[in-house]
Design a protein that fits this description.
Largest sheet: 3 strands, mixed
CATH superfamily of the largest domain: YefM-like domain
CATH topology of the largest domain: YefM-like fold
Order of helices and strands: EHEEHH
Helix content: 55-70%
CATH architecture of the largest domain: 3-Layer(aba) Sandwich
Shape: elongated
CATH class of the largest domain: Alpha Beta
Structural class: alpha+beta
Length: about 90
């Protein structure tokens, strides 16, 4: 989604327009970036989109774990492994 200049609002202005901005976010699907001292500070997004973003984040984390598990399995099948002693030493153990 492209951010329009009208979607960038100083936080001082947002205080007075919060209900209006929230209605635009929910009704029009807009996302608002609130600025503080001229820099991006926080955003107002639809709660359903936020839930979706969190679900994507969890899915991404799961995909990374699956990729790491696949890499480990391939290494194991190729005979690339370390002894318990080597592992403990690598982890800072005894």
């Amino acid at each position: 989604m492209t951010l329009r200049t009208c979607d960038v609002v100083p936080i001082s202005e947002a205080r007075a327009r919060l209900t209006e901005l929230a209605d635009e976010v929910v009704g029009e699907g807009a996302e608002k970036v609130l600025t503080k001292n001229g820099s991006s500070f926080v955003a107002i997004v639809d709660a359903r989109k936020l839930d979706y973003y969190h679900a994507l984040e969890e899915e991404h984390a799961s995909l990374i774990l699956l990729d790491e598990a696949e890499t480990g399995l391939k290494q194991l099948l190729a005979g690339q492994r370390v002894s318990n002693k080597e592992l403990l030493l690598a982890l800072g153990g005894q």
